[in-house]
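Entry:
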Amino acid sequence: MEFAFASAIGVLTASGVYLLLRARTFDVILGLTLLSYATNLLIFSSGRLVVGKAPVLRDGVEATLANHADPLPQALVLTAIVIAFAMTAVAVVVAMRNHADLQSDHVDGREPGYKGDR
């Protein structure tokens, strides 16, 4: 399970970096989103990948990490999901405004090969 999880994090990170290096606004937003997903999975995996372990303490079960999953990374990931959603919404609004003003979805507002003066 750890190999599949690490592979998923690697694929998401590589895809996110590839999309960030493209010069189109939609690709940059999608790349940032994929990088945030990879970061969330990395934080989530820091709490140990266990199946069937309760994240909260129960009566009758010894309070050790062998019997429970760490709930702190899960709480951090929930917070990070909310922050990433807000960041994506702001980036989409800025990209839409940029497209309306410049009539281009290129990051710097200039299409490749354009030689006009600005």
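The longest helix spans residues 71-102.
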